[in-house]
Specification:
The complex is a heterodimer of chains A (475) and B (230). With 475 residues, chain A is an alpha/beta fold. Chain A has three domains: 135 residues, Rossmann fold (3-Layer(aba) Sandwich), CATH 3.40.50; 157 residues, 3-Layer(aba) Sandwich (Rossmann fold), CATH 3.40.50.261; 176 residues, Succinyl-CoA synthetase domains (Rossmann fold, 3-Layer(aba) Sandwich), CATH 3.40.50.261. Helix content of chain A is 42%, strand content 14%. Chain A contains 18 helices and 17 strands. Chain A has a six-stranded parallel beta sheet with strand order 3-2-1-4-5-6. The longest helix of chain A is centred in the C-terminal third of the chain and has 22 residues. Chain A is elongated. Chain A starts with a helix and ends with a helix. The relative contact order of chain A is 0.08. In chain B, the strands form two sheets. In chain B, strands 5, 6, 7, 8, 9 and 10 form a six-stranded antiparallel beta sheet that branches. In chain B, strands 1-4-2-3 form a four-stranded antiparallel beta sheet, with helices on both faces. Chain B folds into two domains: 77 residues, Dna Ligase, domain 1, CATH 3.30.1490.20; 112 residues, D-amino Acid Aminotransferase, Chain A, domain 1 (2-Layer Sandwich), CATH 3.30.470. In chain B, helix 3 packs across helix 4 and helix 6 crosses helix 8. Chain B is of the alpha+beta class and 230 residues long. The chains are: A alpha/beta (475), B alpha+beta (230). Chains A and B meet through helix 8, helix 9 and helix 10 of A and strand 5, strand 6, strand 7, helix 6 and strand 8 of B.
């Protein structure tokens, strides 16, 4: 029986959640749902756990069937041998779906585990019931407050949703995104994907009106053909970032042709990414940094940037990185240069683009306002990347706030991307910590903030290339 | 024509002969240097006269995958006398090198004018199914692995990107004063091969190596097709 999409929707957007088999002293799963806005119940037979569950104000039942009303999501944390009983009850109760945290299945080489997974998957498939996992962290829903990591935020909105084969990376991607000021609408940790494949979850998020963009961490692809077809069409509707881990080596296949001998897994994967117009990343850092550029800059495929750095050396370094990432750093018009020459401090500075600007904007002055005003009027410039110096926020954030509000004004006036760079590669001790705090501050103000020129250039470059490709594909 | 595949299946072969492969590809509208199967020196001369001199002679045997390794390829045969002599010598050489190989005869094809050598291929990826490959021939593909892949079916845009994605592109664009290759003709050829592969799921592997890229047009000079095990 095909998996019921309406049931998957219930499981991912639950009104009633039941945690089966949570244990003290942590009660991890009940705690993960402590901000959940719907009905939360527990199922636990172990008498000695009951006081702890009651202390949390959660009503406990002795079985799923005893729970009144509909159950949308079962979070299952029982030992693996018990899982068939829970799945059987869930089928009988017609729950929306199960998120199965329990591990010890095909991810081991243990035949009992492999057999057990086959058994519970068959039960779920027969009933058309979505089973998320097993060996996963399950479901995060920002608006409802269902979580699988404590630091996952509850709140309105959400700009991107995550699918992760690895639970730790699913949590890491959510928290990394949040740190960079990106609210995550959903995260689904899919684990062994025994019943639904990565393509099924991708399809759900592509169709989800509350998911504007998608980020994925995947290792193996179970239904490759469907994944390819969904992705190729899907990226025309919303951007999809994919970080693929553990690229497999070409198997020992009997190969009789040249083509087959060259068709490495990696070569095929990179071609697929390009053919489908997906954004490919290679690490957690890459992925969250790209998410920030995607979500926190206006959609643009244009290449010409103004780069504002604080010193001569940095203005060379920032230019290298942005050019390598596919951007151009054009000269400005004579009219702009004439206006800049009226106030720009050219002893130890330059305004040709890149800007070497610390002696000009480092003083208490409205010079940054003037520069941004000139850039806003400059038709050749499509965006701004600016180095925000650590020393600008050493004595509180007032000065940084002033700069950020000028940048916000530039951004809303022009609709151009603006990114903030607070490089800390050359700092240590308290300076480094100040830089990290400054980035958080920049992120809170709604700008992508990066700890190196390279990170910012690459993240924005990937996003720009996506929009350029999208334009060419949908023309 | 498609009974080429049925015949191979009946004979429990997965490797099509060059003549069979080219017949199939020509039927699909892919430009190939047609080859005629000939058994015996007399038939070889007739075939050479049909395709026009100069000709190339290649051994046809279901048991031989790499023809040049056993002395099974002779180039530049200019007349009937050369063809007769080459036939006799080739059969001797191949019989020495591969005494157990069953020899069906030789394939005779017109010796195409030299173009820029490229390779167009297809294979079956275990995860994503049929995929296409494009690259420059010779050292570029063997040593540098300078190739581009796309998953079947290809849109014309995919073929255009493939051709331009390889590092050796300047060679196709006329580096060192040579005439640029007809890139649109290569793109059309790639898309046609993609359509051929999509229409024939039995085809597991396919190499057109080399394809000669000319200032005007492109021509597959050699072709190998391997069927999936039934």
């Amino acid at each position: 029986m095909p998996i019921d999409r309406a049931r998957l929707h219930r499981a991912l957007n639950p009104r009633t959640v039941v945690v089966v088999g949570d244990k003290g002293p942590d009660f991890r799963w009940l705690d993960n749902c402590s901000e959940f806005s719907g009905n939360l119940y527990s199922v636990q037979l172990d008498e000695k756990e009951l006081p702890g569950i009651e202390a949390k104000g959660v009503k406990n039942f002795r079985g799923l069937m005893e729970i009144p009303g509909e159950v949308d999501l079962v979070i299952c944390a029982v030992p693996r041998n018990v899982t068939p009983f829970i799945v059987a009850d869930a089928v009988k109760k017609q729950v929306g779906g199960i998120a199965m945290y329990t591990s010890g299945f095909v991810e081991t080489t243990d035949p009992t585990g492999i057999e057990l997974q086959g058994k519970i998957a068959a039960m779920a498939n027969e009933a058309g019931m979505p089973l998320i996992g097993p060996n996963c962290l399950g479901v995060y829903n920002r608006q409802l407050g269902v979580k699988f990591a404590e630091a996952q935020e509850k709140g309105e909105g959400g700009a991107i949703s995550i699918i992760s084969q690895s639970g730790a990376n699913g949590s890491g991607l959510t928290l990394g995104a949040q740190r960079l000021g990106v609210p995550v609408r959903r995260a689904i940790s899919i684990g062994n994907a025994a019943v639904l494949s990565e393509a099924d979850y991708l399809e759900y998020l592509l169709d989800d009106p509350e998911t504007p963009a998608i980020a994925m961490y995947i290792e193996g692809i179970r239904s490759g053909r469907r994944f390819f077809e969904l992705l190729r069409e899907g990226t025309k509707r919303k951007p999809v970032i994919i970080w693929r881990g553990g690229r497999t080596r070409a198997g020992a296949r009997a190969v009789q042709s040249h083509t087959a001998s060259l068709a490495s897994d990696d070569a095929i994967w990179m071609s697929l990414m390009r053919q489908c117009g997906a954004i490919s990343t290679e690490s957690l850092e890459d992925t969250v940094e790209t998410m920030a550029a995607l979500v926190l800059t206006p959609r643009s495929s244009r290449k010409n940037l103004a780069l504002i750095a604080s010193t001569g050396g940095q203005s060379v370094a920032i230019t290298d990185q942005f050019e390598r990432a596919g951007f151009e750093i054009p000269e400005l018009s004579q009219a702009s240069y004439d206006r800049l020459s009226e106030f720009f401090v050219t002893i130890g500075g330059s305004y040709r683009n890149p800007f070497d600007a610390s002696s000009t904007i480092g003083r208490e002055s409205d010079n940054l306002a003037k520069i941004l005003e000139i850039l806003a009027a400059e038709p050749v410039i499509d965006g701004v990347a600016i180095e925000l110096q650590v020393r600008d926020s050493e004595k509180g954030t007032a000065r940084l706030d002033g700069m950020l509000s000028l940048l916000a004004e530039y951004r809303s006036k022009t609709g151009n991307p603006v990114i903030g760079l607070v490089p800390t590669g050359g700092t240590m001790g308290e300076q480094e910590a100040v830089g990290a705090r400054a980035r958080i501050h920049v992120a809170k103000a709604g700008f992508p903030a990066y700890s190196s020129f390279r990170a910012g250039a690459q993240a924005l470059g990937r996003v720009r290339a996506y929009y350029e490709e999208l334009g060419a594909r949908t023309r | 024509m498609s009974d080429v595949i049925a015949t191979a299946r009946k004979q429990r072969r997965t490797l099509l002969s060059e003549v069979e492969a080219k017949d199939l590809l020509a039927e699909a509208g892919i430009p190939v240097a047609r080859a005629i199967l000939a058994k015996g020196p007399k038939k070889a001369v007739e075939a050479a006269e049909a395709v026009g001199y100069p000709v190339v002679m290649k051994i046809v045997s279901p048991d031989i995958a790499h023809k040049s390794d056993v002395g099974g390829v002779t180039l530049g045969l200019k007349d009937a006398k050369a063809v007769r002599k080459a036939y006799k010598e080739m059969i001797e050489r191949v019989s020495d090198a591969a005494p157990n190989a069953k020899i069906a005869g030789v394939a005779i094809q017109n010796m195409a004018a030299q173009g820029i050598e490229v390779i167009v291929g297809a294979t079956t990826d275990p995860q994503f199914g049929p995929v296409m490959m494009f690259g420059l021939g010779g050292v570029f593909v063997e040593v540098l692995k300078d190739v581009a892949f796309r998953i079947v079916p290809l849109e014309p845009r995919d073929a255009a990107q493939m051709v331009r994605e390889i590092r050796g592109l300047p060679i196709l664009q006329g580096a060192r004063g040579s005439q640029p290759a007809d890139l649109p003709a290569l793109e059309v050829l790639i898309v046609k091969v993609s359509q051929f592969v999509a229409a024939h799921p039995e085809v597991a592997e396919l190499d057109l190596n080399p394809v000669f890229a000319y200032p005007n047009g492109a021509l597959a000079v050699d072709a190998r097709i391997v069927l999936a095990s039934a």
